[in-house]
Amino acid sequence: MAKVKAFTMPKWGIEMAEGTVAEWSVAENEPFARGAVLALIETDKITNEIEAEADGRLVRILAQAGEIYPVGALLAVLADGEASAAEIDAVIAGFKQADTSFGDEAPTVAAAPAPAPARTAIPADANISPAARDKAEAAGLGIGDLSGSGRAGRITAQDVDQALRPVPDAGLVGPLPATPASTAFASPLAKRLGHVHGVDLATLTGSGPKGRIGKADVLAAIDAARPVPAPAPKAETRAAAAPAAPAADHVEIRPMSSMRRTIARRLTESKQTIPHFYLRRRVRADRLIRFRAAAEGTRPTLNDYLVKACALALIEVPAVNIQVHGTDIHRFGQANIAVAVATERGLMTPVVTGADRRSVGEISAIVAELAQRAKSGRLTAEEIGGGSFSLSNLGSFGIEQFDAIINPPQGAILAVGMARPEPIDDDGAIRIVPVMHLSLSCDHRAIDGADGARFLQALAALIEAPQLLD
Amino acid sequence: MAVMNIREAINQTLAEEMARDSSIIVLGEDVVGGAGTAGGQEAIGGIWGTTGGLFAKFGPERVIDTPISESAIIGAAAGAALAGLRPVAELMFADFIGVSLDQLWNQMAKFRYMFGGKTKCPAVVRLIYGAGMNSAAQHSQSVYALLTAMPGLKVVLPATPADAKGLLTEALRGDDPVMFFEHKALYGQKGEVPDGEYRQRFGEARMVREGGDVTIVTCGRMVSFSEKAADKLAADGIGIDLIDLRTTSPLDEEAILDSVEQTGRLVIVDESPPRCSIAADIAAIVADKAFTSLKAPPKMVTGPHSPIPFARELERAWLPSPQKIEDAVRQVLAFR
Amino acid sequence: MQLSREALLGAYRRMATIRQFEERLHEEIKTGEIAGFTHLYCGQEAAAVGVCDHLSSEDMIVSTHRGHGHCIAKGCDVRGMMKEIYGRAGGLCRGRGGSMHIADLSVGMLGANGIVGAGAPQAVGAAIAAKLKGKGNVAIAFSGDGACNQGTTFEAMNLAVVVKVPAIFVFENNHYSEHTGVSYAVGTDRDIASRAEAFGMKAWRADGCDFFDTYESMRELLDYVRAGHGPAAIELDTERFYGHFEGDPQRYRGPGELDRIRAERDALKIFRARVGEAKLLDLAELDAIDAEVAQLIDEATRDARAAAPPDPATVAEDVYVDY
Prior knowledge:
The complex is a heterotrimer.
Chain A: E1 4-8, E2 18-24, E3 31-32, E4 37-42, E5 47-51, E6 56-61, E7 68-70, E8 74-79, H1 85-94, H2 130-139, H3 157-164, H4 188-197, H5 215-225, H6 235-238, H7 258-273, E9 276-284, H8 286-293, H9 302-316, E10 322-325, E11 328-331, E12 337-339, E13 341-343, E14 346-348, E15 351-352, H10 360-375, H11 381-384, E16 389-393, E17 412-416, E18 420-426, E19 429-443, H12 449-464
Parallel strand pairs in A: 12-16, 16-17
Antiparallel strand pairs in A: 1-8, 2-4, 2-7, 3-6, 4-5, 6-8, 9-19, 10-11, 12-15, 13-14, 17-19, 18-19
Helix pairs in contact in A: 2-3, 4-5, 9-10, 9-12
Chain B: E1 2-5, H1 6-20, E2 24-28, H2 54-58, E3 63-65, H3 70-82, E4 86-91, H4 101-108, H5 111-114, E5 124-129, H6 144-148, E6 154-156, H7 161-173, E7 178-183, E8 190-193, E9 206-209, E10 214-218, H8 222-235, E11 240-244, E12 247-249, H9 253-263, E13 266-269, H10 278-289, E14 299-301, H11 312-318, H12 322-334
Parallel strand pairs in B: 2-3, 2-4, 4-5, 5-7, 6-7, 10-11, 10-13, 13-14
Antiparallel strand pairs in B: 1-8, 6-12, 9-11
Chain C: H1 5-29, H2 45-52, E1 60-62, H3 68-74, H4 78-85, H5 119-133, E2 139-144, H6 151-163, E3 167-173, E4 176-177, E5 180-181, H7 182-185, H8 193-198, E6 202-207, H9 211-226, E7 232-237, H10 257-264, H11 267-277, H12 283-306
């Protein structure tokens, strides 16, 4: 019988209220010795390592890297040897979050779940059918904004049902992209969902008649792929009351997800602590566009070429291919380019490692994969970390030029706008060609103007001579 | 991938399958043509051109011209299937189920069930149907609703050459009686057809396009009419989920219900009079199973409750059209 | 020609089985325990056995609503048949077909059929299959003097001639199509066999109450058909002792008719007389057979009455091979 117990968020210093598990340093069930680093915890003030007090293993890891947890929250289950699922579950079930709040303030850790919505009483003279009234009251639906589809505007059960229906997946209303033909035995909607969410239907077993894959199967697969939430109360519940019903002037209050809170925190920190400066230049894109058009097979995107160009330019100007850690500058031998991907939940920056060594075609495939996984929430920690430079391209949204915020601990980030026809000096003649505006944001603590300029020069030369890219 | 029309797809599939399986025989009126005449054999290869060349390849024992005796043709197909062959009988016009209905309805459809599940009747009956070629009331009907209503039969309506090949192959490989409907005005329809062996499951509808605003459910020739309507509607930013049923029995309910849950608006296009039609059947299924998703009543676009007229203007007025389909879509969108 | 002892005993056994099976049903139906319509074959035993005793299990027959005799003659399991008629789960068709739809393809019985005349085209189809297989098998459609007026019968006969297949049309003329006499219903003043001849096939005529006459004519016919000459027909003159269906008051019978045909046209009595006369068999052996058959029918009936009914939950099964 192993000794199985809870592993919780430590309290370092009187003021610490919460911490972020920056990363786990051991894998689930991996045995460690006393003194081994188990995890890296970030607080407002410091990032610190938690060391093992004794030999053992984390038989179940519950906290996710990158998420914030209050002091005392259950992060993992610790045992001195192997433990059965039953023992582990017992610890989890029996765990009580300690009250680590500061007496006079409102508790920042809500141990209780959000209060159940009260049954909204509907006035007796409302023009609503009895069945609809029952449904609405039970669901706590305010009928003030409902228009009834029944006789003389009466609200019907159908109206209530439709009002309670969740907003359909943004990927599934309005004009839809043509789904690539799939040979999986699946309903058309399942194929569509699979395509939008990047689920490979070949990996699913269908629960429909004759084993057909249906919407439910794909949605279950999407849910299963989402990170498992920790049982401890999460940041969301600490927010003010559950989303209020739309007020009279329809203001909807949405608490930030933990991901958004992290983004908020990091970018605020970046802007506040890093002395940004910006270098801007234009670059002619016509040769690149033509070069791309001549590519055979599945054509890489323009951005894929830019990733390669940045990678090669970073190798040429290694002063920009860095991470800044306190007073240390880490210079990288290869170019690990973080590519910005917009997802429903926020901006993510998965990294293409060693982009200088890869062909544009390879980069294209990798970026596509990472983007899909980013959108379906399946990126791993390794895929997000370790970047030495970032590339952000808003050209497809019609942005002509912009300045991006550096992603610490990187030293720089390139912002690219759309290629639009502009006049250039082409060997003495004025010609109108597609031109992109580049903006390089640099951390002046580690990168000087000349370094940044030389990088842009190298980059422009590559973009304007694209045959060098592949 | 080869490009061919529906006629060619059917002809090729028959030839390939007959070469592969010696128990497949073809019988019908003038499937070869010329028997007992001075002009000689293979005078026509089927009046729709779908059985041409089979006689030369497979001979009189497997490609059989029959007298005009629909009951005997279909009955013989039923008996041959019980006796271990895989007959493909042709009803030159689907309307002729009238003179052969017992063998379809009381015999072929019911053998397996009546005999306790101990027999199978793997017969394929090819029925040529549809209006639009001025063939008048007795040679233009879509009788698939009647046959869909009969438990024991499978009812199949390809709208593309690929589906003609895929569904016919599936019919010939399966062990149930299949009513294979060929629209007389679709034979020339061209499309890509996969090479080699290609089967299309029954009960799996084809999403022709996805647009998310209104669901159109249809089959056969009405698919291409609906596509034209959808193109016009797309120009106005109205997106159509267009479902080609492929088979009315078994029916892909899931595809229909999934789409209606998203769009809430349903238009069913059926080349038939409205009473007891496939359109009415699907409207009932959707009203039963997706009622709370509907934002408007289901709309049926069908012919009127009348036989099919002869004169061009009248036949045109009888048939559903892309314009009528478009109007129906706008109507369900405008519903409150 | 001389039939072996086994053949003769076998023929009698089969005829006796049919007779006793049907007679027993006649009694049991009165109790109300058997649902639906039943059409008894008593009186026509020589026709079924005289035809089917020539056949192997690879030869096929299609029968009519009056099919118990053909089923038994072709080799269907008597107990399974009884259970089917009683609508039990263990019946030959799992209780789904009943009296009019008994089938057993493993012995070449392609089904009794509730639609008059439906079997003829199916037999032509089966004959097409037989011809293609090339093993010399035949397919037989049993019809009555009623079915011989159905369009399907005419179409089938013509088609059989046109495609020249080994289809055999056996017309059991028991003089009544339901409640109407053959002299009215069949328009020609000649017999039914001549219709088949008019369609272009050879036709025989025989006494359907005399096993030997039927058997001999069928031997010639089958030699002809198996030799590949195309289809053939035979009209068997016979009688049915009971009504069209059980419950039929038989008001169409003449005075003393039923007694007369029981006395003069009883196939079992005629068989006994013929074998006794020619000293082919000892009548005591036939009595012994009667006793054995009686026991078989007893057991079959008892088993059927005690057998389990089908499970209602299975009502929609077996519609398709592949759902």
